[in-house]
Amino acid sequence: MKLDFTYIDGGICAAQGYKASGTYCGIKKPANDSPDIKHKNDICLFTSDVPANTAAVYTQNKVKGAPLLVTKANLEKSGNKALAVIANSKNANTCNADGVEKAERMCELVADEMGINTEDVLVASTGVIGQVLPIEPIEAAVPGLVKSLDYGKNLEAATAIMTTDTVKKEFAVEFKIGGTTCRIGGMAKGSGMIHPNMATTLNFITTDCAISAEMLQKALSDIVQITYNCLSIDGDTSTNDMVLLMANGLACNDEITCDGEAYEIFKSALCEVMANLTKMLAKDGEGATKLLVCTCWGAKDVEAARTVAKSVVCSNLLKCAIFGEDANWGRILCAVGYADAEFDINKVDVDITSEFGTIKVCENGAGVDFSEEKAAEILKSDEIAVNVYLNEGERCATAWGCDLTYDYVKINGDYRT
Questions:
Q1: Which of 60, 118, 69, 128 has its CA nearest to residue 93?
Q2: Based on CB atoms within 10 Å of each CB, which residue in 94, 288, 305, 379 is the most buried?
Q3: Intervals of the chain under pLDDT 50
Q4: Residues 3-59: pLDDT tens digits?
Q5: Quick one: which of 286, 289, 334, 309 has its CA closest to 385?
Q6: Phi and psi of 336, rounded to 5°?
Q7: Which of these is catalytic: 71, 164, 200, 307?
Q8: Is residue 230 within 8 Å of residue 275, measured between CB atoms?
Q9: Is 398 a catalytic residue?
Q10: Are 51 and 248 in contact (CB under 8 A)?
Q11: What is the separation of C-alpha 189 from the centre of its chain, rounded to a whole number of angstroms?
């Protein structure tokens, strides 16, 4: 459902009734006594003024971070409601014998300080896998995090969840349901180890729209398939991937409890936020210099279109060609060809486009003459779009990725040390 939205500032604090805070607590020790590390937040807290219906999706990796296990358990205990979320970067708290104990302790610390039930607190972590999470810095930080909570501190939280991210990622919209103004805002982190299966990186979304927990989960599960699950940076599905969506109802619209116009409006607004966060994640891929977007048009069904589009953005050979600004279109057709979808390759057309123009490189499954000079000009852009036309139906889907550069190897060659 296409609607007009007002883009607004505020991230997770854009909707009514959400506070946030963030600080550097020392989870990651300064390298070589670097003086600037203390300016980089590594832990944050955000809260709802009233209990919020909460939906979640988690990684399908068999190895799951302890925070995911604790968050899932707390939501089951609370009846899918939450009041607070604490999240840290630098350490994933994954594959540790004491991981669940530490994640539970983080929830207890916030609950005790706020005077709420432990199950009303959710927890998330991101960073290095397999390193023991020091709890002492977190114990020392929580009182200050609670004390400094404010409605305008979304930026402190958004920067606290960054790892190799080079920019913070926030997006929010305002929209109307039945004449009532509602808002949805979110923040995300992620730069590497991104190839989602049911979730992606760490993503937190808040809304003041009144919607039941069941419909909230339905909307999130549907939209994640056409946004975050159509994103790939490097083909690695993280152990800590999680998306949390909270709805506190403070907009005071009639609660959405079933399918209908109000639900479709909410779902469309949610898609707007999640799609824009997905694009931000793709553009900030580790070492990336170019955003790569593939849209597959003319498919028989959405699943086929999504499969083809994601196959293209996942191709390491194409990602390298985009980095080198080489219009090696054969790599596109190769990736289309091994996509797990049914279509006639002899009907496929392909073009490459950017702000500097468009060139057709393939028609009916075969190459066509094009200007290499024009292609080079188009590929100089930092946002490259590949359009694949199956010419077999009316469905389409988009996937997001980035180029593959020397810096990706450098970043991941010594990420832990």
A1: 128
A2: 305
A3: 37, 199
A4: 778 999 999 999 999 999 999 999 976 555 555 545 689 999 999 999 999 999 998
A5: 309
A6: -65, -40
A7: 200
A8: no
A9: no
A10: yes
A11: 7
